[in-house]
């Protein structure tokens, strides 16, 4: 039995916009076990980052309802000072954009060292420096003694992301949250960074929440996958099940939009419409309904819930049973014409 | 850093040259001269013309300019017509007075503005912020010459807390503690008057920069490391927010010079600003050009200092 590291129960993160609260993360329940990678996928604006920030307590003006159990302690609404004992020590976060995630006026060594300094008060300065240089080495930075003294603007994007990672893992956290760690990097660097995160996972036995919109990254890294749409989890399953048998229309649309190199395609598949903004979220009904208008309204539930279709595989709403891509039905009709 | 500073200093040379040329031409373009104003009307116009010739005022302008610059380089600003003594001697004491006034004003400005700017930026859109912003707008809208007069009237004449003119009490031996204390006492009111309403730029720049910086990604990184709010502000936000203040420092000096011209006249404080205004009315060219040039040099030096401070704070500016 895997050991539960993080358990999120009915988490709702809402932001106040003109005297009203809007939920960016709505009723999300997830668990992350030790030594497991949970990937969270979805389009931009689906609440993936909002979820990550909620776990780390990094939202400054959000209302958080529900529970976040980290090692059996509810950290959803604890004080900043208590949170500061966890952040950086037991929970680390890798940020999306390495170009802006580092303080431009501080040398690299100081920035990584700060995490050590904050959580190991009795560590000597020289021990800290040694540790930082070890960390730089660990994340694959050449000439770590030299880089220690450098400023962020003197490093490339990939190097900076390594620095961000080194900062996140400095105290060997039990939970590592990687918020689109490769989005800002080019492809060759991407795979290096992913390999690095994988190795670190093996080393530290920690649980990883990997946020991404890249299904390739998911296939390579994840043990389990949660698909988020408009603040809700719409499907959750282990990675093999999800790739073999995606059920929710949104998950299928996501897979469908990945271009295939073996097939000649005139057009990329796109999902119609856009993710509704916070203020325009439908208050009830299936949130994805607006983007699959050809599906009959009666196929959706009024209050869509997660259904367990097989052990560990959950899908929200009943519409998945009736879903077909319009192209598929069109192709059938147009078969004789073209 | 040194290379950067050296290059920055070399750029100053053409700047100073252009400045001296401009000042000289503008001064020459002023209608009238020292002989056309307060001179005995009974003097023979031919004699006046003779004097003009004698002082070289009828020479072509570039010859006059070359003569002037040649002197300035050697530290000779010529003779004052009014005081009948070398300009350097007249300026000597006054430049010291002006320097202290400016320095105290600058220190007071930052002492008031930086804490207010930080408070305003950290707690933006709260009552505290609104009060501070309100104060800085009032400061921005208040003309210095009116505000200084009000301060003089209230604290100088009505409450009699501060002296109303001069730079030191008479009869004190220079170098003694009483002398220094008296000097400081005399410049406090003018300095306060100037500082109180010149804080707006620093407050507003600092506030906006803090509001901006605290939303930047690396601040979130710092919080994710487990840094306390105090640490986030002191180590990450503040340092990044000080850049525009440093950049503004040079301009602050220019403001100070502009302000000192009013303030020194209102408070009867014998400094460069007062000297400049008096000399302009009396067409005391050599003094006018000398003071203006020194003011110009101070501004250019201020800009230089800004750049050097910036390059110390911000590593991205240091050119390799």
UniProtKB/TrEMBL annotation, chain A:
It is a peripheral membrane protein. Pfam families: ABC_tran (PF00005), oligo_HPY (PF08352). The keyword Cell membrane applies. GO terms for molecular function: ATP binding; ATP hydrolysis activity. Residues 6-255 form the ABC transporter domain. One of its GO terms (biological process) is peptide transport. Keywords: ATP-binding, Cell membrane, Membrane, Nucleotide-binding, Transport. GO terms for cellular component: plasma membrane. InterPro entries: AAA+_ATPase (IPR003593), ABC_Ni/Peptide_Import (IPR050388), ABC_transporter-like_ATP-bd (IPR003439), ABC_transporter-like_CS (IPR017871), Oligopep_ABC_C (IPR013563), P-loop_NTPase (IPR027417). It is found in: Cell membrane. Belongs to the ABC transporter superfamily. This is Peptide ABC transporter ATP-binding protein. It comes from Ornithinibacillus bavariensis. The lineage of its organism: Bacteria, Bacillati, Bacillota, Bacilli, Bacillales.
TrEMBL record, chain B:
The keyword Cell membrane applies. Residues 95-306 form the ABC transmembrane type-1 domain. GO terms for cellular component: plasma membrane. InterPro entries: BPD_transp_1_N, MetI-like, MetI-like_sf. It is a multi-pass membrane protein. The chain crosses the membrane at residues 99-119, 131-155, 184-206, 241-267, 287-313. Gene3D superfamilies: MetI-like (1.10.3720.10). Keywords: Cell membrane, Membrane, Transmembrane, Transmembrane helix, Transport. This is Peptide ABC transporter permease. It comes from Ornithinibacillus bavariensis. The lineage of its organism: Bacteria, Bacillati, Bacillota, Bacilli, Bacillales.
